[in-house]
Design brief:
By secondary structure, this protein is mainly alpha-helical. The protein has eleven helices and two strands.
Length: 245
């Protein structure tokens, strides 16, 4: 009983002094904080206007990367997987690993596989349009300039074996994800308007476009693709057609 009374007395004593001990601790922490420079208390990784550090899954090292740079990294990883392994192996886990990102980091930019594939297809269409515009600027302002640039850009793109394999996989995705092909249809609406405005006889302009597109799909799907010498002959003939008045 005496031991029990002593224990109860000790507990009451601790409860009585506990608030005082907390007060002393808080005061000490406040004094220390006030003595430090403001820069020492701020997080150096969250400076306003700078991107958050991205954590690479493999190395666990922090690197500063903008959202646009991360998306480019993801697109490059997707393209490598499609060229190397095909559409079946293009999974979110595989892309995250290939890009050196956590899966959460990938899902931040593309919450679904469909969103990622649509963005990848749009990315390659934009790259083609950029190249097309560059070639348009090298043409004279006369008739057929846009069509000549379109022919050169299309044949240049599709005769690269890596591009042909990649684009074939992306078109295969359209069988499962129709919205992917809808992106292509929207670009074709714009291109067809350019064809009609090329300044050539309408039938000739359309024939040039169809010849280029036929060449493009033949190379992509490898339907009896042309030899290099044959490609050059076809391209020269297409370019001559764009000079007809």
């Amino acid at each position: 009983m005496r031991l029990l009374y002593c224990s109860m007395a000790l507990c009451k004593c601790l409860l009585r002094w506990l608030p005082c001990l907390f007060g002393i601790a808080r005061g000490t922490m406040y004094t220390y904080a006030m003595s430090q420079p403001i820069s020492a208390l701020s997080n150096q990784n969250t400076i306003q206007g700078e991107p958050e550090p991205a954590v690479d899954a493999d190395t666990q090292s922090c690197t500063r990367r903008s959202g646009a740079e991360t998306r480019e990294l993801i697109f490059a990883a997707c393209s490598r997987i499609l060229q190397r392994d095909g559409l079946v192996q293009l999974t979110l886990d595989a892309v995250a690993q290939e890009a050196g990102l956590s899966k959460g980091g990938l899902l931040y930019h593309f919450p679904t596989k469909l969103a990622m594939i649509e963005a990848l297809f749009q990315h390659h269409m934009e790259r083609f349009n950029e190249r097309l515009q560059t070639l348009v600027e090298t043409e004279d302002d006369g008739r057929g300039g846009w069509l000549r640039a379109y022919a050169k850009a299309s044949i240049e793109q599709i005769t690269d074996a890596g591009n042909a394999s990649l684009l074939a996989s992306l078109f295969a995705a359209g069988e499962r994800y129709p919205s992917v092909l809808e992106i292509m249809r929207q670009h074709y609406v714009h291109w067809q308007q350019q064809v009609e405005d090329a300044g050539l006889e309408p039938a000739v302009a359309l024939l040039v476009r169809l010849a280029v597109d036929g060449f493009w799909f033949t190379e992509m799907y490898q339907f009896a693709p042309l030899k290099r010498a044959q490609r050059q002959i076809v391209l020269e003939e297409i370019l001559r057609m764009t000079e007809r008045t």
